[in-house]
Structures are given as structure tokens and as C-alpha cells.
Write a structure and sequence with these properties.
The protein is α/β, with parallel strands linked by helices. Helix content is 39%, strand content 20%. It has three domains: 304 residues, polyphosphate kinase like (2-Layer Sandwich), CATH 3.30.1840; 176 residues, 2-Layer Sandwich (Endonuclease, Chain A); 177 residues, Endonuclease, Chain A, CATH 3.30.870.
């Protein structure tokens, strides 16, 4: 296997920067609704914050390590940090340009963002009244001279650095302070009264700028100036390795340690005076490997994801209401439906309520004796957990494997786990040394076939409205038995368990995928149908990268739909144009993982939770299932095929970061997400119309044979 550093392997985090740029490029597209473009800017910014908190933090740690044993890794980390910072600086300029274009376009649509210097006297009075009612007492200035460093300040927030002078101070000595903006309680944008059918908004930053004399009232200061800045801490948790502590205590400590992570990036207003900037830099205690980036007047653009629509709904996407599948809707038993035939939903096109209804039925059914499920991320007011608690209170034996190491959701998961334990649910905190990332539910019946649910995404109502994920509900005994074996493996980790149907990591998933790829190579050499078609989030595992190169080099067509990190370079000459990769950014986040192998004409289709990264194949409990139902196989294949021909939202992933639009000569513009929603809607309408005709026919038949009513 060749080294990661050679030219045929694109470093994971470089490819991530290219992916995040695709999101930025959506914000630059004029045919995307204006407020959705604002949202894409917010998503780009939010992604970048998390990237610095985690990935850049990891490289910084390596670069700063002085151990001789990691000298080579340190050199590589320093070079990588420089390249990542170069890309970040380049994309930041693109971001600012896109932001300015969008702000101007908003004005053309009658939405104005006013600066503190642009409000008239009437608006200023309204702003000050807002301050007195909503901000007074929520903003507390801290003098830079009173602290040595930012130790209690949170990096999710935005700050104003303030310079001021005293009245009648002949020396004009400058005084420096900072305030944290209360965005979590007041929001980032304040709406002023409309005028002449025009909407007016202000950043909370500018509202506070208008009211600085009120903030420092009675202190005899004047000549106020305020400049925004934000910073990012190292979010890689220092999990206590003391084995005397349980996993729950370790993660609780880790969450607390994250708050104390060292700052490693600051973004500030380029107009900030040097003396004030020095106060900020000194308080952050940054070093030469950290990122110091000047920018525009406003930061924390992740708040654009909640930008007010000002009653202009036409500037957003037309809503697509989730489709309730008639076969899973109404008062028919879902347990019986699944036992009769495999069922399938594709969220958010289909409603997640089908899964909630299944859990609710299982919670009260006298036929059900137990439920086991894995939970990775949970909604704030989780209906999933409520159904599981209901099941436990109704005497069912309920086991929940909850992953405490779900990044940035650890505190929420700890809270939910305690509530479930109090309700009598047996809670398992994952596996020591392995993240449980599989998405499984097992329903044990007293009589009849047991049932399993295998999903590509979390059992999370919120995610199911934004992430595209596939969910298989089956009573197939071999698959259901394997799902039960996965839970046994989690309860007794590292015990030797063989799976007949499922591909499970860290057991044999990698080896089974390699065998499937090798089979395609043999089929190609034998002149049989061969091909590999995959929809996935990330491909960075060096072994899987090498095998895909091997397949393409042997003439096997390799077609990939990759959303995020991709270490493959499909333009390598030795691949003979046998590898094509497309990435899609659209209104929904592409999240499902689907694997299709031609298998000599006997097509094999799989779906599951695993990406092809070392962490998924080696350090997580992941599950991928074969799909046998012809209708579901056809649906999964359609999802991937349509994505590969998406000429509206598809971008070519070629390892350069150009993200050129996908062009297929001789075809009309095609948008896969819209086409999928429309076809699902049409299919559902046909099914409901057919069901209505059957019901009407049965009713007519009953009326024909009805005995006359006698007096």
C-alpha cells in the first residue's frame, strides 16, 4: 500500500476544505433562492467553526509536540496547517465577496441591514428602547486590564472589543473592554418597524454599538468604538483514561474540559485598531501556528441559518411536506405489515412518523416482549425516547445503547440516559474503545417473527427533516438474527461472533467489501457484467482507496456519489477514465450510504451506517445490510443513479477543489432531490387512488348484496 503522502492520495482535511467550498459555491448561485443563499453562508461558517475546533486542533497538537518520536508527524502537521490556512484565507475572501453580493441583493428585495451609523433619530430611539427592555443587565463589560486570558469565555459566541476615552482626558489615554453578545437569548438580528413596504434589520452588534453610552453610563467615557471578533477553542476532549472511572464519568469530565480548551483561531474586524487587536491577541495567548485572520465587520455568520425571512416566503425554497406512505399510515398494524413484507422509507421525502408509530405500537402491543435500539444523537424533545420509556413502563424489556461520544451532543445524551435509567430502561454506554455508530432497532415478539430496523442515519426527528437517510424494516429471519447478534456483541464486546448476512465493523466489514470489489475485478476479467456504484459520505481509508484504484485500473467502472471527504483522485491516468465522482449540495444534506455491485449480472445492493474511513471500519460498531426486496433495491438504485446525473446540483469531485458543475452533453437540466420528491409524491398519489377505488368497489359490492330493510 502506498503512503498517504504520495500524490495518489488526497489528504482528508484538504478534501474537506474542498467540500465546504461546494457549500460556499451554492451561496454564490443566483438561481438559488436568496434567503437559502444566506443559509448556505451560515452552514459554511458553522462547518468551518467545527473544523477548527476539532481537526485543526488535532493537527495543532501534533505540530506543537516536542517528542523526538513524532518528528516526522510534526513536520507533516506543520505543512498541512500551512496549506489549510492558505485555503481558509482564500475561501474567506470568496465568502466576503458572496456576502456583499447577497446583502446588496437583499436590498433589491426590500430587506435592509442597517449599521449603527445609518439609523435615523426615530429608529435610534426604538433601538435604545429595545436595549432597555431586552439587553440591559444581559451585557456585562470586562476590562482587558482585569484579566490575563480568556478562560471563562465561550467560543460559540461573538464578542465586541471596545475602545473608549475619558472626557477631559488631556492624554487621550485609551481604555479597552469587551462584551459577549447575548445571541442565545436575544437572537443575532433585531427587526425594526417596516417603512414603505421595506423591512429593516440590525445586527445585535450594531444595536449594542448604538447603546454603548448606556452600557457605560455614569462612568464618564466618550468616543466609543466597537469591533467584533470571534475565536475558536480546541474541542478535542481530554477523556480521563483512569479505568477506575466509568464511561459516564469520563465523558462528563471530557465535556467540562472542552470548555477550557486552548484558543487556536481568531477572526477579527480588519478595521480594529492595532492597540485593541493586541489586547485581544494577548488575552487569547495564540502562537505562530494558530490562525489569526482579519475579516469584515461581522463574524459568526452561522447565525445566517436563522436569518429572519421578513414575511418574504418567496425568497426561500418551496416547502416539501414529508410524504406519509399509505402502507405505513392509518390504523393498520405496522408490526403485521412488516412481517408480511419488507418496508422502506427514505427521509425526509417520507415522513419519519412511520418509525415513531412503529415504536409506539411496539410500546403498547401485547405481542411485544422487548425492544433493543442504538441511539447516537437525540432530538431535544425526543419522541423516540418517549416511546421507549412508554414501553418500559408497560413492562417491556427495553435496552438502549446510547453513544456518549457523539461529538457536541455528549451532554444531551448524558441527560437522556439518566431519564431512561430512571424509567427502568437498561442503558448501555457503548463499547470501551469503540463508538457505536450503527443505527439499529430490534423488536422481540412473544409469538411470530421478530422485527429489525436498519437505518443509514440517526433515529432523530430533527435530522429526519434535513438529512437524506434510508430505513429498512424487515422480518427476514437471517437479518433479524444478525441484528440481535450485534446487540450481543455490544453487550459482550470483542467476543467472537460471525454474521451471516450483515457486514459489521470492526469485525469483517472491510474484508467483505474487499471481497466484493475483488469479485468485480474477476468478473471484468471473465467478460461478465462488472461495476461498482456507491453513494457515501466519506472515503478516506487508504486500503479502500487502493482497492477502488485497483478495480478501476482493471477496467471496472467505478461511479461514486461522495458528499464530503474524498481522498481519491479520479483523474489519474492509470485509471483510464474508469472512475467518476460526483458531489451534491442541495436543500437536503445527502447522508445515506448505498453500495451496489454488478456481481456478474446478479446485482447486489447494500445500505447502512458506514463510511469508508479508518474510524468507521476499525474503531466503530457499524452495520451494513444486504437488501433483497426487488422494489426496495430498485428504489435504492434509482437514488444513486439520479444523483450521478444531477446536472443542477452535482459537482465534479476530481481532487483539485475546483468543484466544476457536472455537465452531461445532450441532456436537460436535472435536479435529483426535486425529481425524487416528485416521483415519490406521484407514486403515493397513485397508490392512494388505487386504494380508494378498491374501497369504493368493496362498498358497492356490499350495497348490492345488502338485504332489504323491512318494517
Amino acid at each position: 500500500m502506498k503512503s498517504k503522502t504520495e500524490k495518489n492520495y488526497l489528504e482528508r482535511d484538504i478534501s474537506w476544505m474542498y467540500f465546504n467550498r461546494r457549500i460556499l459555491q451554492e451561496a454564490e448561485k443566483e438561481n438559488v433562492p436568496l434567503l437559502e443563499r444566506m443559509s448556505f453562508l451560515g452552514i459554511y461558517s458553522n462547518n468551518l467553526d467545527e473544523f477548527f475546533r476539532v481537526r485543526m486542533a488535532t493537527h495543532s497538537r501534533v505540530a506543537e509536540c516536542e517528542e523526538n518520536s513524532v518528528k516526522a508527524a510534526r513536520t507533516e502537521a506543520v505543512a498541512l496547517l500551512k496549506e489549510l490556512n492558505r485555503l481558509n484565507a482564500q475561501y474567506s475572501k470568496e465568502f466576503e465577496q458572496a456576502n456583499q453580493v447577497i446583502i446588496k441583493a437583499l436590498q433589491e428585495k426590500g430587506i435592509y441591514l442597517l449599521k449603527d451609523t445609518e439609523v435615523d433619530e426615530e429608529q435610534l430611539q426604538l433601538v435604545r428602547a429595545y436595549y432597555e427592555q431586552n439587553l440591559n443587565g444581559r451585557i456585562m463589560p470586562i476590562w482587558f486590564s482585569a484579566i490575563k486570558m480568556f478562560d471563562l469565555e465561550k467560543d460559540e459566541n461573538i464578542y465586541l472589543a471596545i475602545r473608549m476615552h475619558r472626557k477631559n482626558d488631556a492624554g487621550k489615554k485609551a481604555y479597552y473592554a469587551f462584551v459577549e453578545l447575548p445571541v442565545s437569548t436575544c437572537g443575532r438580528f433585531v427587526r425594526l418597524p417596516d417603512r414603505e413596504r421595506k423591512s429593516y434589520l440590525m445586527y445585535l452588534d450594531d444595536v449594542i454599538r448604538c447603546c454603548l453610552p448606556l452600557l457605560f453610563r455614569g462612568q464618564d467615557y466618550t468616543d466609543f468604538e466597537a469591533y467584533s471578533f470571534k475565536f475558536t477553542r480546541d474541542a478535542e476532549m481530554e477523556i480521563d483514561n483512569d479505568l477506575r472511572n466509568g464511561m459516564l464519568q469520563k465523558v462528563s469530565k471530557g465535556v467540562k474540559s472542552r470548555k477550557r480548551g486552548a484558543p487556536l483561531r481568531v477572526v477579527f474586524d480588519a478595521a480594529m485598531p492595532k492597540g485593541l487587536l493586541r489586547q485581544v491577541i494577548d488575552a487569547l495567548n495564540l502562537d505562530k501556528l494558530d490562525t489569526v485572520l482579519s475579516g469584515g465587520r461581522y463574524h459568526n455568520h452561522k447565525d445566517y441559518m436563522r436569518f429572519p425571512d421578513c414575511d418574504k416566503k418567496h425568497l426561500k425554497y418551496e416547502p416539501w411536506e414529508p410524504i406519509h406512505k399509505c402502507e405505513l399510515d392509518g390504523d393498520v398494524s405496522l408490526l403485521k405489515q412488516i412481517r408480511n413484507h419488507d418496508r422502506f422509507i427514505h427521509v425526509p421525502y417520507h415522513s419519519f412518523d412511520a418509525y415513531i408509530n412503529l415504536l409506539q405500537e411496539a410500546a403498547i402491543s401485547r405481542e411485544v416482549k422487548g425492544i433493543k435500539t442504538t441511539l447516537y444523537r437525540l432530538a431535544k424533545d425526543s419522541k423516540v425516547v418517549k416511546a421507549l420509556i412508554c414501553a418500559a413502563r408497560n413492562g417491556k424489556k427495553v435496552t438502549v445503547v446510547i453513544e456518549l461520544m457523539a461529538r457536541f451532543d455528549e451532554a444531551s445524551n448524558i441527560d437522556w440516559s439518566k431519564k431512561m435509567q430512571e424509567a427502568g430502561i437498561h442503558v448501555i454506554f457503548g463499547v470501551e474503545g469503540l463508538k457505536v455508530h450503527s443505527k439499529l432497532t430490534y423488536i422481540a415478539m412473544k409469538t411470530g417473527a421478530n422485527i429489525a430496523v436498519i437505518s443509514t442515519g440517526n433515529f432523530h426527528e430533527g435530522n429526519a427533516r434535513a438529512y437524506t437517510d434510508c430505513m429498512l424494516m424487515t422480518a427476514s429471519r437471517p437479518i433479524v438474527n444478525d441484528v440481535l447478534s450485534v446487540f450481543r456483541f455490544i453487550e459482550r464486546p470483542y467476543t467472537p461472533i460471525r454474521f451471516k448476512e450483515l457486514l459489521v465493523s470492526p469485525n469483517e466489514m472491510r474484508q467483505k467489501f474487499i471481497r466484493l470489489i475483488n469479485e468485480e475485478i474477476r468478473n471484468r476479467e471473465a467478460g461478465k457484467p462488472a461495476g461498482i456504484t456507491v453513494k457515501i459520505n466519506h472515503i478516506t481509508d487508504p486500503i479502500m482507496v487502493k482497492k477502488l484504484y485497483d478495480a478501476a485500473g482493471h477496467g471496472v467502472p467505478v461511479r461514486l456519489l461522495v458528499r464530503g471527504n474524498c481522498s481519491l483522485i479520479p483523474t489519474l491516468p492509470e485509471l483510464n477514465d474508469n472512475m467518476h465522482i460526483v458531489g451534491i449540495i442541495d436543500r437536503y444534506l445527502e447522508h445515506s450510504r448505498i453500495f451496489i455491485f454488478e456481481a456478474g449480472g446478479e446485482e447486489k445492493v447494500f445500505m447502512g451506517s458506514a463510511d469508508w474511513m479508518p474510524r468507521n471500519l476499525d474503531n466503530r460498531v457499524e452495520v451494513v445490510t444486504p437488501v433483497y426486496c426487488p422494489e426496495i433495491k430498485a428504489d435504492l438504485k434509482r437514488v444513486v443513479e439520479w444523483g450521478l446525473k444531477d446536472t443542477c446540483q452535482g459537482r465534479i469531485v476530481d481532487g483539485t477543489g475546483r468543484n466544476l458543475p457536472l455537465v452531461i452533453p445532450g441532456t436537460s437540466p436535472f435536479r435529483s432531490q426535486e425529481a425524487l420528491y416528485r416521483v415519490y409524491l406521484e407514486e403515493e398519489m397513485r397508490l392512494r387512488e388505487a386504494a380508494a377505488r378498491v374501497a369504493a368497489s368493496e362498498e358497492a359490492a356490499q350495497e348490492t348484496h345488502q338485504e332489504p330493510i323491512t318494517q
